[in-house]
Amino acid sequence: MRNKKTPTPSTTRSESPSVAPTTRATQVGSGIVTPKLAHLVADRLREQVAAGDLRNGDTLPPEAELLRQFNVSRPIMREALRVLEAENLIQLGRGARAGATVLTPTINTASRYGGLYLATQGTTLGEINQVRMLLEPPLAALLAQRTNKGFLADLESCVTTQREALARQDHAAAIAAVNEFHQQMVKHSENSALNLLAGMLSDISAGAYPRLLLSRPNQRAVWARTEESCAAHAQLLKLISAGKAAQAETFWRKYMQETAEYLIDNSLANLPVGLPRSNT
Fold first, then answer.
1. Are residue 75 and residue 150 in the same domain, yes or no?
2. Could you tell me the residue range of the domain that residue 60 belongs to?
């Protein structure tokens, strides 16, 4: 476990030197609404996570030390920590003496929140695929242009798993490996913004497509498309390995367009995305 990290509270407030209430005050009518002190404490800690001062696995000081550093009451500190726990930025230890463990944000976390939002908006699989079609073909080209091809081992592993799953007619496992191929592409993009956007959409799709196997009217179509997807992944892997960026992008755009047509032809394009998976 990492050494305990000491937060760096502000010292601009006379009655509570550790927390300044001026940064997020908003005016409503003729009055000023001051943020709750617990939220300001949470802001300070959240900012340190964003800045890298607090890293994944670091342990915050025990409660008594945090109270001394921030000069706030125990209820306020506990509320601040609960806010961060709800955001999956910390994991609280057991007992007052146990420090909280820092958890840096992940794509899975973003997918949970993003997926919940999309589900409440009635977003469909067709809409998800439409956005992925804008993001993934250029990503295929970027991977093909990469001089360091160390990432290919992960893509090759996905293709191998797909073939093995199809050989034993395990379509659920093949779908999982298909989704993993997309996620590995995103993982190796080396672009954090693209990683977040494409990764979130890929993770939402990973939760949606296995549900199609439970729908008997669509099972055969899903099986057939899964086999086509596995073949397409193998072909894309060849193009990326050969450094053929333009061909990889064109091929993947065509594949994504065919996926859009498949969703429409099988009355799946208007299927709403489900709620985020609880195990991600």
1. no
2. 26-102
Same domain, 215 and 174: yes
Question: 237: which 2 tokens?
Answer: 């892997």
Q: Is 10 part of any domain?
A: no
CA–CA dist 256, 136 (Å, integer): 9
> How many whole angstroms separate alpha carbon 177 and alpha carbon 227?
11
In this structure, what token pair is assigned to residue 122?
């009635």
Confidence of residue 4 (pLDDT cuts 50, 70, 90): low
Question: What would you report as the CA-atom Rg of the chain, rounded to the nearest whole angstrom?
Answer: 24
- 45-80: pLDDT as tens digits: 999 988 889 999 899 988 888 999 999 999 999 999
Structure tokens at 39: 């939220």
Count: domains in the chain: 2
pLDDT value at position 200?
Answer: 77
Look at residues 210, 147, 214, 201 and name the one whose alpha carbon lies nearest to residue 174. 210
The answer on pLDDT for 121 being more than 50 is yes
Report if residue 92 sits inside a domain: yes
Q: Which of 102, 126, 158 is the last residue of a domain?
A: 102
